[in-house]
Amino acid sequence: MAATIIRNARIVNEGVIIDGDILIKDNRIERVGGEISVPGRLQ
């Protein structure tokens, strides 16, 4: 199961713009938010 984190992204959803991280697992967006941390991964 590969995971990708996109850091410091500008996310637009339904007219709302936020700055944060995006976690993608198995080709699906798993989480969107401030600073996302993944256990066992260097930041």
Structure description:
The protein is an all-beta fold and about 45 residues long. It is built from no helices and three strands. It has strands spanning about 5-15, 15-25, 30-35. Strands 1-2-3 form a three-stranded antiparallel β-sheet, with no helix packed on it. The radius of gyration is 11 Å and the shape is globular. About 0% of the residues are buried. The mean pLDDT is about 85.
Q: Which helices and strands, and how do they pair?
A:
Layout: E1 3-13, E2 16-25, E3 28-33
Antiparallel strand pairs: 1-2, 2-3
Q: Strands of the largest sheet, in order across it?
A: 1-2-3
Report how far apart the termini are.
19 Å
Q: What class, by secondary structure content?
A: mainly beta
Could you state the order of secondary-structure elements as H and E? EEE
Number of discrete domains: 1
State the helicity in percent bands: under 10%
CA-based gyration radius = 11 Å
Structural shape: globular
The overall strand count is 3
Low-confidence stretches: none
**Can you summarize the main beta sheet?**
3 strands, antiparallel
Number of helices: 0
User: Proportion of β residues?
Assistant: over 45%
Q: Mean pLDDT, rounded to whole units? A: 86
